[in-house]
């Protein structure tokens, strides 16, 4: 029997009550990784700044790559270790850059990660932050070409197999939004812009990428929420990104037609490669069902589980989109559904009331 495979999604920058802060969905991922043979999720779920957790059967897949995977365009190829290229925004001050380089050296010496020499962009990236009318966060960079040139150097000259981007983010953020976030309310003001950066690199080069913002430390706050506290532990959020990228699956940018691969020459199907047709279940907040991943997989036999307790700023439930799902109250309930689904047991059989069969 093939491995039971699930995807855990908590979209970035939409104020999710669980997963909208500093790695606070990681306990959910840890629990689901015990239930599933293979769990696919994205950096927003697993990144906890200086905190992380090694989940050997969990695959760290950037959002754009996850969209392409769910659409059946790309496959995922597990790896033992990627060589990570470190890309710095020229706008980062020398002392702050040194803090990040020391964190990268610590990851090499302490965790045994493989990194190439680093590059600095030839122009400031100039990240600008925005917020949408829906309440979600997003942003732009003024010099995307500089980002892509630096990434290309890492790939072609240093042999990087994954890219960790560190961009200088504005310190002058909306004070109320930042305070709400630090107190465990509202939306992460920088998450949307982070997604723009990683999407651009993955779309252009088809290799794993994740982003770590460079910010000056903020003053101590005695009322800090535990959900936001991981980002207060040091000068950099880089460690979790390096750990995630070190074993992020490579993308297979070919398509399956029948039993044959078509696309780029030299990419052959290998045992262990993962394709969208093998996904058994997707778990997502109940009000955030408009993602490309969910729309693609809703056309398959994949079981979609929506979690009501995980409130977001979005108001996009499954039913108006024609998506059939099992709605549960909490991630604890979702874990029960996954156990039953993996065992081939109809969840209704676990209750005390079962109706009789009726004639059609």
TrEMBL record:
Per the record, the domain of life is Bacteria
- Organism equals Cyanomargarita calcarea GSE-NOS-MK-12-04C
Q: Which InterPro entries does its entry note? A: DUF3326
Q: Which is an annotated Pfam family here?
A: DUF3326
Protein's UniProt name: DUF3326 domain-containing protein
